[in-house]
Amino acid sequence: MKKLSTEKKPLRKKKWHNSLKLILLIALILIIVFFIISSILSYKKLEGIQTLDVNVKVGDHLGFNLDSDSLNFGTITPGGGSSRGLILESEKPLMVHISFEGSISKWVVPSKNDFVLNGRDNVSFSINVPPDANLGDYTGKVFIIFTKI
Predict the structure, then answer these.
(1) Would you call 128 helix, strand, or coil by DSSP?
(2) Which of 6, 52, 104, 112 is deepest in the core (most CB within 10 A)?
(3) Domain CATH number, residue 97
């Protein structure tokens, strides 16, 4: 006669748990590969980035700075404005995007943005200092991003 066993057989949770881990690992690898491929593709479109310092001194008098290594607007009184020009050149057509960062970024506006540069073009940068601006130095950076069309 057979004896009945009172032992409980382990459930198959361990096998199911391992399958879930494998599926999650494959999903994670696919996500990482997707981001690597998209980064490579967007990097290949990038032709270059030109970074320039931008600065202005808010004071009680006007002053000029004609240096060409940055967008320096000199000294401007509160409520005043100024502009500087920049010549961009390219041997092949490129898309141009201009962005700013820093304490001066909300005051400076380019004459054009998100445009196609084909040869040589002039971009004017205007600054308007708010009437309630405190006296002092304000700085930032302008990023001119060139991408292939």
Answers:
(1) strand
(2) 104
(3) 2.60.40
Residue 63, helix vs strand vs coil:
strand
- The answer to the question of residue 42 being in a domain is no
| Structural domain contains residue 18 | no
Rounded to whole angstroms, how far apart are CA atoms 44 and 36? 12
Inside any domain, residue 134: yes
Q: What is the Cα–Cα distance from 79 to 84, expressed in whole angstroms?
A: 17
Of 67, 59, 98, 63, whose CA–CA distance to 84 is shortest? Answer: 67
Please give the tally of structural domains in the chain.
Answer: 1
Rounded to whole angstroms, the Cα distance separating 34 from 31 reads 5
Nearest to 60 by CA among 46, 42, 78, 47: 78
Helix (H) or strand (E) holding 74: strand 71-76
Q: Please name every residue paired with 66 in a beta bridge, in sequence order, or none if there are none.
A: none
Rounded CA separation 132/134 (Å) = 6
Interval 36-94: pLDDT, tens: 877 766 666 888 889 999 999 999 977 776 666 789 999 999 999 999 999 999 999 99
